[in-house]
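Q: Fold this one first, please.
A: Sequence and structure below.
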Amino acid sequence: MEWVNHMWRVILLSILMLVLVGVALRLWMFFAGIRVTSWWRSPWHNATVGGNLWSLHQFGLAVDVVPVNPAVLSQLRRIPLAGLIVTESDHLHVQVV
């Protein structure tokens, strides 16, 4: 039974670390002056906006930003946690990888 308690501690600490990474990403963007249009989404909101079933927005590990221009893209590339940057129709999708 001891291993079950240990397993839950590891799972909870892992989730906490992911949440902290998502918050750090968002704070970095806030202080860099980057305009975020979407960050944390509930599964219901994610489904409403047509998000992927396992969208990282649901875990706070993805953000959508505007405007789409080279200056903002350059700023995003300097953020250590922003691993994947995708240009979508009207925004940039940034997620931790």
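Q: Good. Now the second chain.
A: Here it is, same layout.
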Amino acid sequence: MPESQENLTQKIKELLRDKNYRLTLHAEGERDADRITLVEIEEALLHNDPEIIEDYPDDPRGRSFLLLGYSGKGEPIHALCSIHEGTLVIITIYRPDPNLWVDWKTRRDKI
């Protein structure tokens, strides 16, 4: 049975607090392209109550989830993550495009 979203959010925060996370090469490229700092990542995913907006429990590579968090300046950040061998893996991270998202939580093509 998949872990509840509340428990998963707490686990994510614990891993971030312990600096037990890494970015994939793809995430590093996206982070650089969108000029997202490591401080902003920690603000968005640790300090400002991130929300799981999409959950992929049956992903063949392992459960993954899309998080929405806000930087200290209130800017939305999306992070696609998984937990692998006790480490939070940030698969990709970006500033969501307002043309593609409604309220940063719902994809426009889904409404």
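Q: Anything worth noting on the second one?
A: Strands lie at 21-23, 51-56, 64-70, 76-84, 87-94, 101-102, 106-107.
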